[in-house]
Design the sequence.
């Protein structure tokens, strides 16, 4: 059965300080964020009724807004509490949680310093982001036609809605060509990330991952690096060029939605869904549920 449209569901959404019926959580067509992408958001998951790394996500939401020149009129602790209230109202134990903050409809035009700042939080049931099959066989990634911008051209440390336009374009193109997702390069031509997840490679038991100097240093990315180091696995953050991909044996993506998902191929390069990738998938799954990873 096909899930209902995201604007036509039962449930409640936290919006500007109160829980409202899902179908009533709407904004005006002249909302500044719709026209000028003045919005920031987070994606986080709840496991067993607890939102993983909640405060880190709320802190990043506040910081993202500051980078776009506005302040969210709720504190980090307020946002934490609102996220928990939204999850509780949903009745879900395992869920995806989406806070978003944006400039409203009080002003139209490029500049809108007096527009009201809004905050909303929704949550819904969401299984494996790429589907269960991908966890077994690995994703097929295309090579994206768009590149991540240089940090001097956009606020790349912000999880800003506008920065995802090229991700949508790249993922649509990949899907049209029969792929699951796309690998994006940065403005220099170095490997950056997938369209909504960080990327890791494995070579001779060592993890290699791009330096996040023009894309988000994901919270899941940081968690996986810490888990790997706890196992004594070396992690090298460095510039990675596409020509190196043929030398790697394994590859996987990390993200709050993607969690840890193996990659089977990128363009002409193939990877095995190997033991190290599987181990980190298990470690992450246990860690987010408050369990100590098995040895």
Sequence:
């Amino acid at each position: 059965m096909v899930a209902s449209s995201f604007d036509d569901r039962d449930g409640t959404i936290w919006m500007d300080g109160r829980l409202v019926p899902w179908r009533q959580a709407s904004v005006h067509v002249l909302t500044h964020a719709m026209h000028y992408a003045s919005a920031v958001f987070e994606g986080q998951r709840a496991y067993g009724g607890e939102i993983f790394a909640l405060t880190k996500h709320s802190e990043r939401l506040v910081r993202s807004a500051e980078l776009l020149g506005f302040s969210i009129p709720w504190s980090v602790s307020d946002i934490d509490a609102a996220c928990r209230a939204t999850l509780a109202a949903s009745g879900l134990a395992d869920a995806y949680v989406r806070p978003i903050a944006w400039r409203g409809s009080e002003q139209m035009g490029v500049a809108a310093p007096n527009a009201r700042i809004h905050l909303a939080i929704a949550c819904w049931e969401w299984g494996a982001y790429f589907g269960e099959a991908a966890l077994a066989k690995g994703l097929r990634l295309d090579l994206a036609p768009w590149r991540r911008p240089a940090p001097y051209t956009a606020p790349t440390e912000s999880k800003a809605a506008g920065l995802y336009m090229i991700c949508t374009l790249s993922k649509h193109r990949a899907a049209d060509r029969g792929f699951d997702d796309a690998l994006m390069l940065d403005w220099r031509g170095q490997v950056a990330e997938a369209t909504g997840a960080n990327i890791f490679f494995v070579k001779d038991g060592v993890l290699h991952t791009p330096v996040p100097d023009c894309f988000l240093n994901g919270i899941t990315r940081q968690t996986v690096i810490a888990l790997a180091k706890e196992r004594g696995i070396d992690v090298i953050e460095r510039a990675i060029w596409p020509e190196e991909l043929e030398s790697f044996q394994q590859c996987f993506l990390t993200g709050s939605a993607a969690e840890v998902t193996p990659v089977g191929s990128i363009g002409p390069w193939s990877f095995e869904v190997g033991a190290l990738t599987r181990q980190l998938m298990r470690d992450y799954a246990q860690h987010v549920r408050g369990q100590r990873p098995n040895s």
